[in-house]
Design a protein that fits this description.
The chain is built from eight helices and no strands. Helix 5 runs parallel beside helix 7.
Length: 181
């Protein structure tokens, strides 16, 4: 009941019945809840995705620092940058995509885990892309790219892990990238 006949699937934050809702999980509440409750659930879902995405990513990178990571996730949530734009869902999707990327290289590759993390990487990347607010996404992409570069620098130059050991993981990343495109 909003808009003047335009396609509401591409308007940010506007719920619609479309296939693109699969990649906007914060809008899925509108399909299963009353309208007022769905707005509240979608609003708080963004904060939950952000806090949990940061927590699990940092817990994977810095194990056994749970109190500091918990405080860091709350600081990130209440950061003025996040609160001013209030698009925590976009940052959360990027953090979940980073988590899937890190998990791909976490341990000895198992085909089942590679498939799950590859699908997760493609899904969360599409969720991030389909938030469709480039000014905010570009700044997030810079931070995520820096984080990923630092992760791989540490993995290959500090830890001394050989690139050949990660060929399966890199092939899954390439497949996920093709799926996203």
């Amino acid at each position: 009941n909003i808009g003047l006949g335009q396609d509401m699937t591409i308007i940010i934050g506007a719920p619609s019945r479309s296939i693109f809702n699969a990649f906007n999980p914060h809008n899925l509440f509108f399909l299963i809840m009353p309208y007022a409750n769905a707005f509240a659930a979608a609003w708080w879902f963004g904060s939950l995705v952000l806090v949990l995405g940061f927590y699990f990513l940092m817990d994977n990178l810095f194990p056994h620092k749970r109190l500091i990571i918990s405080l860091g996730s709350l600081i990130l949530l209440f950061n003025p940058f996040v609160q001013w734009w209030y698009l925590p869902v976009s940052i959360g999707y990027a953090l979940w995509a980073c988590l899937m990327l890190v998990k791909l290289f976490d341990r000895e590759p198992n085909n089942k885990h590679l498939a799950v993390y590859g699908i997760g990487l493609a899904y969360w990347t599409l969720c991030f892309i389909l938030t469709l607010y480039p000014p905010f996404q570009i700044s997030i992409a810079y931070v995520v790219l820096s984080l990923i570069i630092g992760y791989f620098y540490h993995r290959y130059f500090v830890q001394g892990i050989k690139f050949k050991q990660d060929l399966k993981s890199w092939s899954v990343i390439m497949i996920a990238g093709i799926a996203v495109i």
